[in-house]
């Protein structure tokens, strides 16, 4: 692990295995090229994130990209998340175009030019698959969080990622079951990547409650910034018997909420700013109690 500009950069064990295999098989130059492409790809994310003031703790490099851990997880606007996500594949666009141009001008051999632009195309397109933690998965999550509540976006983002990564595993195994002579055996690389993504998303799905808690923990700071700048408040009307957890799960990512608590008769019992509800929950942790109890 090395530290650059306050960011810890590390190589994921999966990438280490790829490196070892490349050294053993004599593809060291190709490995170095792949590492450079992945590094520049991830650097695009870092530069875009820093331009929005995000605080990045660590970047882990994978054979097909990387994963950045940020302090503001879940609190940044979905527009910013989308821009940061697409910034990585855009690096592959210019690198691939440059490699193709160098081959056209004769500065690189046709074989090497083809290898570099194809590697960029493969990494860029693969990262656009709608599977977390790939860039396409982050774009999917940004879109889901604009359409649905934040909790729903977490759940459905993980479910879609599990479904697609599972399909990737199955697809990698299909050739082994084709009639003799029609298949080429198991696609080992695709199988390994598919399993990695499936396990990653299965773990993520199980930890959604903790991810959502982190979102709520950072929500107060985001709400304060919104109020300071002036923001339209979106009301959430709930019965006084609604649990605190149920109300919190109605929060949307890019919105500020006022909680309107209704009597059975339809009269308004109280109106709470969202940060009051969040602070009460974080203080006592009783998510299953009714919002009515906040006034008792």
TrEMBL record:
E.C. number: 3.4.24.-
Membrane topology: Multi-pass membrane protein
Database matches in InterPro entries: Peptidase_M50
Main location: membrane
PANTHER family listed in its UniProt record: MEMBRANE-ASSOCIATED ZINC METALLOPROTEASE M50B, STAGE IV SPORULATION PROTEIN FB
Family the UniProt entry places it in: Belongs to the peptidase M50B family.
Protein name: Stage IV sporulation protein FB
Species assigned in the record: Paenibacillus plantiphilus
């Amino acid at each position: 692990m090395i530290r650059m500009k306050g960011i810890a950069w590390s190589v994921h064990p999966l990438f280490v295995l790829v490196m070892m295999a490349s050294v053993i098989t004599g593809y060291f130059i190709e490995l170095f090229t792949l590492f450079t492409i992945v590094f520049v790809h991830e650097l695009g994310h870092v530069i875009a994130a820093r331009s929005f003031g995000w605080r990045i703790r660590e970047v882990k490099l994978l054979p097909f990209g990387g994963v950045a851990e940020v302090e503001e997880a879940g609190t940044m606007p979905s527009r910013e998340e989308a821009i940061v996500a697409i910034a990585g594949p855009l690096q592959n666009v210019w690198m691939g175009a440059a490699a193709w141009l160098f081959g056209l001008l004769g500065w690189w051999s046709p074989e090497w030019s083809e290898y570099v632009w194809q590697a960029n195309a493969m990494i860029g397109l693969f990262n656009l698959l709608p599977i977390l933690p790939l860039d396409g998965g982050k774009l999917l999550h940004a879109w889901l969080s604009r359409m649905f509540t934040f909790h729903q976006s977490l759940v459905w983002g993980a479910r879609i990622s599990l479904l697609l990564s599972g399909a990737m595993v199955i697809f990698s195994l299909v050739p082994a079951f084709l009639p003799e002579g029609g298949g080429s055996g198991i696609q080992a690389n695709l199988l390994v990547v598919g399993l990695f993504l499936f396990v990653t998303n299965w773990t993520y799905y199980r930890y959604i409650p903790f991810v959502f808690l982190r979102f709520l923990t950072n929500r107060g700071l985001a709400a304060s910034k919104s109020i300071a700048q002036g923001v339209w408040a979106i009301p959430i009307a709930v019965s006084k018997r609604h649990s605190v957890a149920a109300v919190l799960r109605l929060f949307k990512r890019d919105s500020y909420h006022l909680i309107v608590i209704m009597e059975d008769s339809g009269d308004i019992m109280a109106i709470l700013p969202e940060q009051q509800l969040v602070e009460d929950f974080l203080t006592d942790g009783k998510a299953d109690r009714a919002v009515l109890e906040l006034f008792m």
